[in-house]
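hey m, so remember when u said the tokens were messed up on ur end? i reran from scratch. heres the input so u can diff it against urs
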Amino acid sequence: MASVPESVTEKLGPGLRRRRDGTVVKTEAAEAVYIYDFPMRTWHWLNAFCLVILCITGYLIGKPPPSVPGEAAMNYWFGYIRMIHFATGQIMAIALAFRLAWVFGPSRHAKEIFLPPFWKRRWWRGVWNEIKWYLFIERTPKTYIGHNPLAQLAIFLMCMLPMFHQVFTGFALYAEGQGVDTWWYAAFGWVFSVYGDSFFVHTTHRLVMWLIAIFCLIHMYTAIREDILSRQSIISTMVSGYRYFDKGQGPKEDNQ
């Protein structure tokens, strides 16, 4: 295929350019790198689904709508909200435990969101470079095979640690409802000793829910933005597992 002059085209994404007359043409074939295996992709989308359900039902539990008149047995919809919240929370916890165990699996990128390399000066330089890129100060982004350093830092601080917090505080609140003589309370009753009382556990559980919700919005924005501006696939990578780069795009950074 004949090359298309850089001066008369606009990059659309890996392997695609738009001419000045508006037509889209293919350039050099995009380079594909397999990053996220099937278990990681499955956990990502299952976890996203669980977070949406948990945030909606958690909000309704903390701020319930007006009561419905009539017999309680005929108006059990709030009970269903709680049941969906509890069941989804347990699914999320099991999936999170599996994802944590998958750190020791075959994929070297599985540990990125659990153990950012805080001890590497080069990694912190990458964080600063990405901050400048997202603030439109840096003109050209670096190309990373896995998550970029800022994404690693944000996911670790605003998603993974909060999710572990939600699992322990959520199970503690569930154990409180089950009773102090149950195995639930024996396993998670210590959370109340750490936090002081039930009210504070409730409060932090709800506040961290909002932190995760904010992170999800930022995560969606940055993923769409990177798909458009960084000229490498982001969203489709979590569907197929492959990240596509334009050939000749430059060296790929590996933040491991």
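this time it looks ok to me. The chain has one domain: 6-253. if urs says something different then somethings off w ur setup not the seq
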